[in-house]
Each structure stands twice: as structure tokens, then as C-alpha cells.
Amino acid sequence: MSARDEILARIGKAVAGAQDVEIPREYRTTQQVEDLVGLFAERVDDYRAIVHVLPAAEVPAKIDELLTGRRMIRPGGDGWEDLNTADGVVTTCAVAIAETGTIVLDHGPGQGTRAQTLVPDYHLCVVRADQIVSCVPEAIARLDPARPLTWISGPSATSDIELNRVEGVHGPRTLEVVIST
């Protein structure tokens, strides 16, 4: 008998004769948030990302300013840079979550491939206010589970055994977010 079989047999013996119990699955699917944009911006900032909240009319000029002098990957646009030589990537997103400060890419139009969003050292993501939802269940309801999803909560960061934070190990070292209101 394998260790797996032994463990499963012990579990089966322990629960033999136990009554089936109905487990309520009444999860919260939305959350009331007065200022979705403000909460999202605050949470993204908590992750050490750079955040700009701007009126929609000012967004193109801000993007031009932020990209000046950088070799950027621009999914779906002109000026594609080679993945190995690009300074960064500029994308849109599928949805953003206020409660967690998370940006979700489904790699649709304007979002590039996973490699394009994880290899460069800099990621500029443009988020429209109408893409921000209150909580994770609300985000999941908007997403297609058949699409490749990348969930981004701040710049890539990890800590070693001594809890020294290192950024840029598993993705962009710098995340900059422009929120268009």
C-alpha cells in the first residue's frame, strides 16, 4: 500500500458513518465602496507602485511623458520593440480590483502576451475608472476563465530567508499605473 493509499484509508475510516453536512456557500460577490478609484489607487500605492489619477483628457499626454526616451513594447500598436532590448511595456487591463489593488490582464487587445508583461523591467498599465470593481468575486464574474490571466499586485517582489525584499525577480521591477477618470 502506498503512503497516499494509507492516508486516504485512514481518512475514510475516520469519517465513516458521519452525516453529510450542507455547507452554505453564500459568499459576498460585491462590496459597497464609496470611492473605487481612490481605494484602488491607495492599495496600488501600498504595493510600492507609482500611481497617477488623471482626467481622461490628460492621459495621452501623461503616457507620452512617461514613455519619452524609453524603448517600449506597445501591444497592438506601432513601435514594437524586441523583448530582449525593450525597457518596458505599456498595456491596458481587463479589470482592476479596489479591495486588493490588483490588476488583471487577460491578454486581450492592448494587453500583450504574458512574456511581454513579465520580462521587461518596467510596466506602465493604463486603467480606466470603469474597469475598477470592488472585490475579487466581482472581478472573476467579469473574466473569461478560458483566457490566460495574469494577476498583478504591485511590482514583482520577493523576500529571501532573512526577509530582505528584492524587486524584479519574477517580473517588472517598476509598476506605474495611470488611472483614467
Give short descriptive properties of this protein.
181 residues, alpha/beta, Rossmann fold, five-stranded parallel β-sheet, four-stranded mixed β-sheet, globular, LUD_dom, L-lactate dehydrogenase complex protein LldG, FTHF_cligase-like_sf, NagB/RpiA_transferase-like
Find the count of extended strands (DSSP E, 2+ residues). Answer: 11
Task: Choose one word for the global shape.
Answer: globular
- Total domains: 1
Placed side by side, the strands forming the largest sheet appear as 1-11-6-3-2
Helix content: 10-25%
Say what the CATH topology is: Rossmann fold
Radius of gyration: 21 Å
- Find the CATH superfamily: NagB/RpiA/CoA transferase-like
Oligomer: single chain
Roughly what is the average pLDDT, rounded to an integer?
90
Beta-strand content bin: 15-25%
SSE order, one letter for each helix or strand: HHEHEEEEHEEHEEEE
End-to-end Cα distance, whole Å, is 62 Å
Number of helix segments?
Answer: 5
Indicate the CATH class: Alpha Beta
Structural class: alpha/beta
For the sheet with most strands, the description reads: 5 strands, parallel
Low-confidence stretches: none
CATH architecture: 3-Layer(aba) Sandwich
